[in-house]
Design a protein that fits this description.
single chain, 8-stranded mixed sheet, about 20% helix
C-alpha cells in the first residue's frame, strides 16, 4: 500500500524555547494518563493529546476526566498548554465529546485536530464549528487506509482498523450482530523527536492481516498503547510478532479491574497499567 504524506500547513510554527518542564525531561518521552484511553504525550518539541477530550458520561463503566482535569485541558493550562495536535480514534463517548473538542480548539488557537470523518460529522452539529473548522483534519477512510500527516515536523501516521467486536441479539430476528461493525476506528503512529508511539484506539486484536499490510513488526516501537483485550490469545500473537516494545501500556481498564490487570502483568516488565489521574511515566531511549 502506498502511504500518502500530507503536510498540515496550519501548524508550521516557529519553535519557541522549551518550557522548564520540557527541559527537565531532556530527550525523554513523557506519558500522562488522563482517563480511559486518553493520554498526553510529550517529547522535546511536541505535545499530543489522544482520546482525552471527553466526559459527562453517566455511570461508572469507564474512567473519565475529573472536572478539574477537564478544565485544565479546555483552558490550555499546564500540563496541557501548547498542545500541537489532538487525535481522536473514533466517535464513541468514552473517547470523544464534541462540545469539549470544539471548546478546546476555540481556546487553543494553535492546536489542530485529526479524526475520522464520523467524528467530524458529530462536530459539525456544534454551533461554533465554523470557528474551528479550518483546523479540523477529518479523513474519509475504508479498510485498509494508510495516510501520514506532518504537523510541526512530527509525522502522524493514520491507520484504519476494525473496531473490536461487541455482539448483541437483534430483538426482531433473534440473530447476533456486531454493534461496532461500522465504526471508523483509527490507530495512530506518532513519530516525534526520535520516538515512535502507537495508539490502537479500540482496534480489534484479531486484525493480524492489517498489521501485516501496514508493515508492523519490522522495528521495535518505543511505546505501544493497547486495549486490555489484547491480552487474549489473538492479541498476544500480535504483540509478540508485530507490536514489539519495551513499553506497553494497557488501557480501557475499569477502575474496579485495575488491581486484577496489574496482577496479571506483574511478571511482564514491559507492560504497564496507570492507576491514577495525571499519573506520569517517563520513557527514555
Amino acid at each position: 500500500m502506498t502511504t500518502r504524506l500530507i503536510t498540515v500547513t496550519t501548524m508550521v510554527l516557529l519553535i519557541v524555547a522549551p518550557s522548564v518542564r520540557s527541559q527537565a525531561s531532556f530527550d525523554a518521552c513523557r506519558i500522562t494518563y488522563v482517563a480511559n484511553e486518553g493520554f498526553l504525550i510529550e517529547t522535546k518539541h511536541h505535545r499530543v493529546l489522544v482520546d482525552a477530550l471527553f466526559g459527562n458520561i453517566e455511570g461508572d463503566w469507564c474512567d473519565q476526566p475529573t472536572d478539574s482535569v477537564a478544565n485544565l485541558m479546555l483552558e490550555g493550562i499546564a500540563p496541557f498548554d501548547k498542545i500541537d495536535v489532538v487525535l481522536v480514534t473514533h466517535k464513541h463517548i468514552d473517547h470523544f465529546n464534541g462540545p469539549m473538542v470544539v471548546k478546546f480548539l476555540m481556546n487553543n488557537r494553535k492546536s489542530v485536530l485529526i479524526c475520522p470523518d464520523q467524528v467530524n460529522e458529530l462536530l459539525q452539529r456544534n454551533a461554533d464549528y465554523s470557528e474551528v473548522s479550518e483546523r479540523v483534519h477529518s479523513l474519509k477512510s475504508a479498510i485498509p487506509f494508510d495516510t501520514t500527516l506532518r504537523v510541526k515536523n512530527a509525522d502522524i501516521r493514520v491507520l484504519r482498523f476494525n473496531h473490536g467486536s461487541y455482539f448483541e441479539t437483534d430483538s426482531v430476528t433473534g440473530k447476533a450482530y456486531d454493534r461496532h461493525r461500522g465504526v471508523e476506528n483509527f490507530g495512530y503512529l506518532i513519530m516525534a523527536d526520535g520516538y515512535t508511539l502507537f495508539h490502537s484506539g479500540d482496534g480489534s486484536p484479531s486484525d493480524k492481516t492489517l498489521y501485516v499490510t501496514y508493515g508492523f513488526g519490522k522495528k521495535e516501537l518505543d511505546v505501544v498503547f493497547l486495549d486490555r483485550l489484547f491480552l487474549q490469545r489473538d492479541g498476544q500473537e500480535l504483540m509478540s510478532e508485530y507490536l514489539k516494545t519495551r513499553n506497553l501500556i494497557l488501557m480501557h481498564i475499569q477502575r474496579q479491574s485495575r488491581e486484577y490487570y496489574k496482577s496479571a502483568i506483574r511478571s511482564v516488565p514491559a507492560m504497564f497499567v496507570f492507576t491514577s489521574f495525571l499519573e506520569t511515566k517517563v520513557i527514555t531511549k
